[in-house]
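Can't paste images in this forum, so I'm doing it all in text. The chain is below; anyone willing to post the predicted structure tokens underneath?
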Amino acid sequence: MIDRLTGAASRASDEPEDWKETTADEQLRFDQCLMSDGLRLGGLNAYGLAQDALNQSPEKLHELAELDDTFSGPLSRAYDKDQEDWKNTWERLRSQETAWGAPLNDLNGVPGWFTRPDGTRENDNFYAQTGLDK
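Text version of the structure:
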């Protein structure tokens, strides 16, 4: 591109390869975006870490948002803890549901009422059982 004032060719930067380098502003924006995803998508642990990190200095924010080659930074560990907490909660709720249903397991159906899941008795259809076939 030619500069209109000087007539000399101008370049966007002095280094042709500088687009590969991450500037401090770009790194800060990346860290902020990563933590905002933690706020938006995370559980209690990831949310707490992200909220705390966004209130820190850019250096501390980068430290908390650090992603190494194995993606095992603080946010990843908080996410893993959230997943473990969710799994434990789900197992506890599932066992409670099973415990509530246990007293009903030995009960037989009431005679004359629907005893099969589809609402029919053997060799009978729903309409005949309810008297709607006539």
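The chain has a mean pLDDT of 78. The longest helix spans residues 74-101.
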